[in-house]
Here is the input.
Amino acid sequence: QVQLVESGGGLVQAGGSLRLSCAASGRTFSNYEIGWFRQAPGKEREFVAAISRSGSRPDYSNSVKGRFTISRDNAKNTVYLQMNSLKPEDTAVYYCAATVLFGTSADWDYNYWGQGTQVTVSS
Here is the structure.
């Protein structure tokens, strides 16, 4: 299995930026597609972005497209989520997750999850 640890969350003003990191250990990192999800208080967990094994195929939800960028460095076993132009509605706990499937945004398809990192955007 693979273990995932998120970092980089924090408090930022609207319009600001944060970069989240997802560090993996365990089995071969490049065997997994990695996704970012988020969950705000009182809301269901939602898909944010995902990236293919090679990093050549990123995918984004409509709510973050054009503002967030997902990337990965397989040599460092790390996936990044660069978040720009942050809005108060981006406030949530952000989770990274790993799947052996291809091109999925469904959280039930992801087998391994990190503990989450809090992102708070003030207005």
